[in-house]
Amino acid sequence: MIRGILYFTVMILSIYSLHASEDPLRDTLWIRQMPLGGQNFSKPLFHPNGKTVFATSDQYMFEYDVATGELLKTRETKSQRHITDYVLTSDAQYIIVCTLPELIAVGDCEIEVWHSDSGFVKEKKFSGYGYPKSLALSPDNTSLYVGFTPVGLYRINVEKMQIDKEENEYGFGDNIALSPDGKTLISTVEYFQAEDKSVSALLDSENFKVIGSVPDFITRPTFSSTSEYIVGGTYYQNKDYIALYNVRTGEYRRMGVNSTVLDAKFTKDNKYFIATTSSSGYLVYDIEQKKRLYTAPYETGGQYIALSPDNKYYCVAGVQSIVLWNFTNPIINSISDDSSAPLTIYPNPTESSLTIQFSSSERNISYSIYDMHGQEIKSDNISDSEVHQGFFTINTESQMSGMYIVCIRVGTEIYIRHYYIVR
Questions:
Q1: How far, in Å, CA of 286 to CA of 271, rounded?
Q2: Cβ–Cβ under 8 Å, residues 382 and 392
Q3: Partners of 421 in the beta sheet?
Q4: Is-contact 79 99, C-beta < 8 A?
Q5: Element of type H or E holding 386
Q6: 284 with 331: CB under 8 angstroms?
Q7: pTM
Q8: Of 322, 196, 313, 306, nearest to 262 (Cα)?
């Protein structure tokens, strides 16, 4: 009787989590705790192909498999110093990181270039500059922009690792971002010209001349993919706001929130942006209407966030863990778990077996099963006879009660499903 009630309850919860349109984040794909005794995760960043996601802690960079959460690779700075920011080249062959000096006020710091497979390639050392806080890379991967704290803005020739431009007239630097077209930099300085005032300036990326300004100091500014908008957090007259600035028209809007804005990202269609604050889950804003449309559960919030290139996945990096969800929002038009894909699984929950039914004519089909720790526990290729009949069955008798991930490979496509074992 109890088992029957539990089975029914989990089944209802499973169906709700997979199909309730008001649920913005379906099943959590995976959660990973901080490796190597680190302190804080920061800046998740998806590989351009969407198959892996990066995050850093202290002097380490971790790369995880999106589908399974498996830690694929751990990288460490040559200097063994803390990573403050990093960027990938557009082809993802190289990773560029900036590091803290041993003493922040003085001392040396480095910009390191790594090959994504073979590791350290070269470096650029700075002495007495403060420390590099943010990086931006030109679309053609030839120029690296470095914002220093307390002030300092430099452009580095990536091939030669030499400074070819320095902003030394006004004192910009600190938080920087580069528009995707490579033409405009935004530099936000909290203590401009060593005074207790903050500025956000738009600069021509070629000559560092000021071409515009934003009324407030913007934290973690981010450009839309069209280079038209900038979004970030701001603080005005003792209140917290999300700041949205139109680069082309100069229109500026503050949208009130209840606590400090931590991070913000545009969706791929540039119709919306999502933002997180210190007291909420992510918030969805309509750019054209300039208003909030949705507030997700608190658990979806975090200090650093990222959306995969196809907007199917949402990643949050926090104090001691990194979390990945299938991203579905009732406002934003994306799908969770590839639910429109030509395959289904049943029964779910199950006890002893799981059937995968598919309608594809592809003959090359295989699967892998992972537990919630990212460990592969089973894999197999599907026989021609099973492919011909349009379904196959997996024996799950050896699996303990809990949730599992099955990755089904159909030709070059990969589909992800969750299922539950209940006994």
A1: 6
A2: yes
A3: 350, 402
A4: yes
A5: helix 384-389
A6: yes
A7: 0.73
A8: 306
Residues of the chain with CATH 2.130.10.10: 24-327
* Lookup: tokens for 163: 């400074």
3 state SS of 389: helix
CA–CA distance, 216 with 232 (Å, rounded to integer): 10
pLDDT 10s per residue in the chain (423 long)? Answer: 333 433 333 333 333 333 333 444 445 788 888 887 766 778 999 999 999 999 999 899 999 999 889 999 999 999 998 899 999 999 999 999 998 865 555 557 889 999 999 999 999 988 766 788 899 999 999 999 999 887 789 999 999 999 999 987 777 888 899 999 999 999 987 655 555 567 789 999 999 999 998 988 898 999 999 999 999 999 888 889 999 999 999 999 999 888 889 999 999 989 899 999 888 778 889 898 878 877 777 777 788 999 999 888 889 887 778 888 877 654 553 333 444 456 788 898 888 999 998 876 777 888 988 876 667 889 999 888 777 788 889 999 999 888 787 888 887 677 777 788 887
User: Which residues on neighbouring strands pair with residue 222, listed in sequence order?
Assistant: 231
In which residue ranges of the chain is CATH 2.60.40.1930 found? 343-421
The token pair at 158 is: 């990536």
Which of 49, 96, 51, 85 lies closest to 70, judged by CA? 51
Pick the CATH number of 24-327 from 2.60.40.10, 3.90.550.10, 3.40.50.2300, 2.130.10.10: 2.130.10.10
* Phi, psi torsion values for 6, nearest 5 degrees: -65, -45
CA pair distance 246, 227, nearest whole angstrom: 9
Topology of domain 343-421, per CATH?
A: Immunoglobulin-like (2.60.40)
Q: Residue 394: what residue type?
A: I
* Residues linked to residue 32 through DSSP beta bridges, in sequence order: 322
- Contact status, residue 287 vs residue 270, Cβ threshold 8 Å: yes
Beta partners for residue 136, in sequence order = 145
Q: Please state whether beta strands 52-57 and 313-317 pair in parallel, antiparallel, or not at all (unpaired).
A: unpaired
CB atoms within 10 A of CB 133: 19
* Tokens linked to 99: 């590091």
Identify the three-state secondary structure at position 202. strand
Residue 326 makes CB contacts below 8 A (sequence gap 6+) with 25, 26, 27, 29, 312, 313, 314, 336, 337, 416
